[in-house]
């Protein structure tokens, strides 16, 4: 039983937890800046980036795909800014136009290219493939201390772990400019807290996080994790640090609960199947948001304001 | 050569010297060829109708709004090197007051220059912020979430944040817009006490009836500079009529622009 857990569940569970928590950490700032759609946009444009990198390099190596997706993310950001400035439309409209157009381009590229023999499919990109992260060397608990066995962990795990660490360092180091720029960009510019640079760096961190998580957990989970835990946390408190702590708790709980429910839930009802873990985690985070809306201590303010608008 | 040097010197000592500033969004200029030297130690108002470019002028001075042409000097230097000597109070409506933060934390933002990005706030930082809150009469609200404040209280918190910056030049964008009478009184008291300390203040102001009472210098602006100088010299019916393009009626004008009117009318 324990070796079963180590082989089949340890890596996917850790990848889900780390991805969820790093997305949720950045999500706090996206929600406060009313930029929640950025996570959505970047997850979508990763597809054309991955296809383009495959067409150019002819491989599906993770590094090439990451670079392709990263370039696509930056192109999209430039496009969003250009549409905003030239078309004089608000930023959410610009984002909506940019990412749907580029995503559609990716689908066309996929169909027109000779990628049919290769395993890039849209479904995979949406749902991710958490369940495939099997640790063949995880035969018993001693494997956790065996460097040879640890080296055989699925490469997605160290990848999301490094990115998670990077995100945490970014938030700690850039804390003050991030907070001031989120609250009052004009003041931030006047004290030379570099709001524009902070803005761009935040979006680049979002892109890196989304792309690292994307391959393992799929874009649905990435989008949900950028928004749901942070939005739920906002309903729990009126202070920023407690909000971030809540968002981490919610992200962790969604990952664990969602993974367990997807794997064992159907069995409890006598069905011999399992559900998509990423889909279930995203659903759990949505349910947490629903409960936060209904019972969160700060919900009255938010609802009263919505009614007032 | 001599007069040129003299005027150059005047520009150097000025807290804010703007020369030939033009800003444009699209086809129409928002601010056109404006010169403006704010005298040191003055309490200067910028007055003009809606869309006259008042806020844009301030933002350009702070390097936030992109300018087509013109030169901006803060104490004779480019803005970048002088940012620490300057405090900016944006319009209250420009930020999201639903932001999850407290009054004290907002005032602590004014200490940005003195702290590392990741540094934790210490007792002396908090004491300093509390002093500034006391000065605007908001010390009892330090732990409140900012969304729970009235408009006037929010404005006073913004002023406290500017006080924490200990700037030589403070730039305020409509600090009296939509505030209660008590707040207006509290703010002008603080501004006047800053002036007594030798600080310079520049303030976008929309209430013509209080210009004479509150300010010593005024810039009349309507995209172009109409007039600038001591209030007694330039705040005249003629200049106002020109600034507002004939939209003020004569009775209004007489009441506002006559030096003794504010006392005789009340």
Q: Can you identify the CATH superfamily of chain B? A: P-loop containing nucleotide triphosphate hydrolases
CATH class of chain B: Alpha Beta
The CATH architecture assignment of chain B turns out to be 3-Layer(aba) Sandwich
Question: How much is the average pLDDT of chain A?
Answer: 83
Question: Quaternary state, please?
Answer: heterodimer
What name does the CATH topology of chain B carry? Rossmann fold
Report the uncertain regions of chain A. Answer: none
Strand content of chain A: under 5%
Ends apart, CA distance between termini of chain B: 51 Å
Please tell me the total number of domains of chain B.
1
Family (chain B): Belongs to the ABC transporter superfamily.
Keywords (chain B): ATP-binding, Nucleotide-binding, Transport
InterPro entries (chain B): AAA+_ATPase, ABC_transporter-like_ATP-bd, ABC_transporter-like_CS, Metal_Ion_Import_ABC, P-loop_NTPase
GO molecular function, one term (chain B): ATP hydrolysis activity
Overview in brief:
With 309 residues, chain A is mainly α. Chain A is 78% helix and 0% strand.
Structure characterization notes:
The complex is a heterodimer of chains A (309) and B (266). Chain A is mainly alpha-helical and 309 residues long. Chain A has a domain at 2-137 and 152-215: ABC transporter involved in vitamin B12 uptake, BtuC (Orthogonal Bundle). Helix content of chain A is 78%, strand content 0%. Chain A is globular, with a radius of gyration of 20 Å. Chain A starts with a helix and ends with a helix. The model of chain A has no long low-confidence stretch (mean pLDDT 83). In chain B, the strands form two sheets. A six-stranded mixed β-sheet of chain B has the order 5-6-7-3-8-9, with helices on both faces. A three-stranded antiparallel β-sheet of chain B has the order 2-1-4, with helices on one face. Chain B has 266 residues and is of the alpha/beta class. Chain B has a single domain (11-247), classed as Rossmann fold. The longest helix of chain B is centred in the C-terminal third of the chain and has 16 residues, at 181-196. Chain B has helices spanning 2-13, 54-61, 79-82, 103-108, 123-135, 151-164, 181-196, 211-214, 231-234, 237-243, 250-257, 261-265, and strands at residues 16-25, 28-38, 43-47, 69-74, 86-89, 169-173, 200-204, 217-222, 224-230. Chain A binds chain B through residues 32, 34, 172-177, 179-180, 182-184, 186-187, 189-193, 234, 237-240, 243, 301, 305, and chain B through 59, 62-64, 80, 83, 86-88, 90, 94-96, 98-102, 105-106, 109, 112-113, 115-119, 145, 147, 161, 165. Chain B: Residues 16-248 form the ABC transporter domain. Chain B: Keywords: ATP-binding, Nucleotide-binding, Transport. Chain B: InterPro entries: AAA+_ATPase (IPR003593), ABC_transporter-like_ATP-bd (IPR003439), ABC_transporter-like_CS (IPR017871), Metal_Ion_Import_ABC (IPR050153), P-loop_NTPase (IPR027417). Chain B: Belongs to the ABC transporter superfamily.
